[in-house]
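Progress report, Aim 2. The chain analyzed during this reporting quarter is listed below.
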Amino acid sequence: MFLWGLWIDPLYIVLIVATLVISGAAQIFIKSQFGKWSGVRNSAGLTGVQIGERLGQGIHFEDAPQGSDRVTFKIVPGDLSDHFDPRTKQIGLSEVVASRDSVAAMAVTAHEVGHAQQDAEGTVAMRARAFLVPALTFSPTLSYILIFMGLIFNLTGLFWLGIVVFGLMVVFSILTLPVEIGASRRALVMLRETGLIATEQDEQGVRRVLAAAAMTYVAAAVTSILTLLYYISIARRS
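Predicted structure tokens for the chain:
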């Protein structure tokens, strides 16, 4: 296919469109659900930090830094920037989650505490994903360089090497799915067992926010797999 005098691979156009649709739909879904349930007060009347402190009381880390074996919390900038850092054993909560007593804040905080619980227990999926983290510090840039150089200089071996390196990111995105889904399941269990989910509205809101968050990781995994398959198709045609 020629576009503005340049040859454009039709399969590449399909990949770009599919990626935009999948990623865009996932982002719209999470933002709509988070926005909706951020305006609904949870029945416990607790902020994200308060919920996190209650749920994290029973979590202990054997390899915690500086002698601390408990999960701690901090406020981080940005929207939907909430995360658990296994290196510091800290949960970072965005301002809208940490300081508000919404259903969305309850769901997001419980999910991150679920990650802390996974880390403390050393689940297989969590360990496998953590094992790949060091490789991801260089694999994105290195893979694109190898693939680009392989195409420019018509070096099939170099191109395949780039695909293998890119495959590390695909494996990481796939391993992320059971970790994220597992954290959401743990979040629901913890919220129920502690009585923080006390109404049908709480249950519905928490489930929808967690489901929307999971879809972003599913979208990331699908798009990374599609990109890998596209690179493989190029290598086979060359």
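The CA atoms of residues 139 and 165 lie 6 Å apart. The beta strands are 2-3, 6-7, 72-76, 83-85, 90-94. These observations will guide the mutagenesis work planned for the next reporting period.
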